[in-house]
Target: TldD/PmbA family protein
Amino acid sequence: MIGVDAALARCHELVDLARRMGADAADAVARASSSESVGVRLGALEEVERSESEEVGLRVFVGRRSASINTSDFAPEGLELLAQRAVEMARLAPEDPYGGLAPSEALFAGEPRDLDLVDAAAPAPEELRAAALATEDAARAVAGVTNSNGGSASYSRSVFALVTSNGFARGHAGGSHSLSASVVAGEGGDKQTDYAYRTQRHRSDLPDPAEIGREAGERAVRKLAPVSIPSGRMPVVFDPRVGGGVLGHLLGAMGAPSIARKASFLIGREQDQLFDTAIKVLEDPHRLRGLRSRNYDGEGVASVPRALVDAGQVTGWLTNVASAAQLGLQLSGHASRGSGGAPGISVGNVYLEAGEPSVAELIADIEDGLYVTDLFGQGVNLVTGDYSRGASGLRIRGGELAEPVAEITIAGTLPDMFRALVPADDLEFQRGIDVPTFRIDGMAIAGT
Model:
């Protein structure tokens, strides 16, 4: 796999070629990745995989017209043909009054922070196999587990580089280590499957494989002999593993492209009290070893820590160049970038700030409620804010977790859910979007 310097050189070459072909402005993105994974099942080696990929994308502007194209052909004649075709395509494209490069004054400058995103040690395949076996063994050792879908361990590295014709040229490397297990509990007609996984930038930050395996096994066993639940309204408590999705819906609706398309339920709610005044949603793109840490976004604009929700109110929309121009907003450093196509929107490490009550205290006064551990389906409308998902989890009775429940639907509207949201104190940083356990009263439950 190429390094950062080689990726930058490739991008510089493409931008120079595009300018020579007649582009008024251009930027180029290079991506490369490599990964190794080992999978086991029932204690035996099942698969060993290694993959590598490299790709470069070029975006060119001819006046207000633009085009983008990408390739994995890095021969000099291939890159020259790529630049020529991109410029030809741009000349035929319709005018876009909002597209363009980020202005020079908005580009990240200075010395980038060392975010410690690369683990220098790369595990050998034998080490990956041992970790996968240990993870699956711990899951299979849980009483009630009867079969396994397998355990896996993997390691990956990646390189990203961005060069623009107005002076930005930066690149960085990243890496990750993952462990997972998925097992089956029960016999006959009552079989349940669940999983556990962790991903970290550094292998030393991963939990012990036995911890991940036990979690997978215990989650599967906890689902055995599920029942339904009477329909009605009741408090619903979201496990952190699924609660991050609710926060993800908020972030999707805050994207300025959605606002510009009139496709967000947040339009007109900029000054509304969406959450309780104690609620904060924070973004920390500079967290050391964070899964979404970065110094700059996909257009070269600086990424900075900020509150996305403060005192219960959204603090602004998440912009890239095109959406900021369309709405007359400042750049927020939230552009995402693939090898081809126009930039989208992405966030750094986002989390819902922890509350004061423990999980036990959060549910202590719930006489009859639902603790959700799994969500299914795509019943979320970010235009209207309507929310309806299939769910399973545990019944809450008398302030305690009780029997497993399944084949139910939970429903509400996102604004109503946000207003009622109460977080617990168990926030952990495990994903790109992290939340503590949280409670939402008054959700509609469709069961028996």
In short: The chain has two domains: 4-221, 226-448. The chain has a mean pLDDT of 96. The first helix runs from residue 4 to 20. The radius of gyration is 24 Å.
